[in-house]
What does this fold into?
Amino acid sequence: MTYEEYLDEVTTLIVEKYGVADAAAIKIVVDAQDREYFVAHDDKPEMRTLERAHTDARSLYQASAQAKAGAGKKK
It folds into this structure.
């Protein structure tokens, strides 16, 4: 998948798996881009797999303020 498709997939997975609003999921991904989290993904197309998207979605969500705000709440 293209780099843009990959970012869309990660965003969608955050929304679907963690119940985060679209805007909040987009912010999580944009903030990760700002921290250059996805630089290697842009340079290496082999990193842009569905399996990796699930891993990145989990990692980014867990590191986000969204996850910290929801800590202790059952989902």
Q: What stands out?
A: The chain has a mean pLDDT of 91. The CA atoms of residues 14 and 57 lie 6 Å apart. Helices lie at 3-18, 22-34, 39-43, 50-63, 65-69.
